[in-house]
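Notes from the 1:1 (GR / supervisor)

We went over the backlog. Supervisor wanted to see one worked example end to end before approving the batch request, so GR pasted a single chain during the call. The sequence is below; no edits were made to it. Supervisor asked that the structure be written out right there so they could see what the output format looks like.
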Amino acid sequence: MPHLASRKPPAQVSGPRQGDYTRIESHEPECHGFGRRDCQLACFVIDFSRCDAQARAGFPLLGGTARCLCQGQTRGKETSMRNYEIAYIADPELDDEALAELEAKVKGWIEAAGGKLGKIDRWGKRRLAYPIKKKTDGHYVFIYADMPTEAPAIIERDFRLSEQILRFMFTLQEPQD
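Structure output shown during the call:
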C-alpha cells in the first residue's frame, strides 16, 4: 500500500464542467457541454411564446445545438398565475440603505420571473426562534405576488446565492373570492 504522502492531489478543475449550462437570455445561450453534441439549457425567457425551444450553442468545434428545458411545452399557451407569499429573513447587520437595496433586488427577481408584485409587509428586526448562521436577530420581510407556477423554482436559486438572506420561504396562497 503506498504511503499517503506520496499520493498526488486531485487535479484542479477550472472553468465549466461537462453538462454545465447557462441561461437562455436574449436567445444567445452558451452551452458548456464539452464533448457532447447538444445539451439542455434552463429557459428564462419570460414570454414563452417567443421561446424557439432550440438555439445555437457555442461549441467552437462540434457545432451542436442547445435545447431549452421547457421544450416548447408552454409555447403559445397562457401561463397560469398563482398567488404566493414570499417570506425572507435578512441579515440583522444590514443598515436601512442595504435593506432597501436588497428589497429592490428581490423585487427585480420576482419581476424577471414574470411575477406581479402585490403588498409588501416589513416587520422590521425581530428575534429568531433559534440561531441561524450564528445570528439571533433578523429583518423579516413578506412580499405578496402573483407569479407563474415555475417562478418559485427560478427565484429560489437567487435567494440561495444571496449571502444577505438568512432564510426564505414560498407559500402558495388560497385564491381570494
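Supervisor's comment: Confidence is low (pLDDT under 50) at residues 15-42, 44-77.
Batch request approved.
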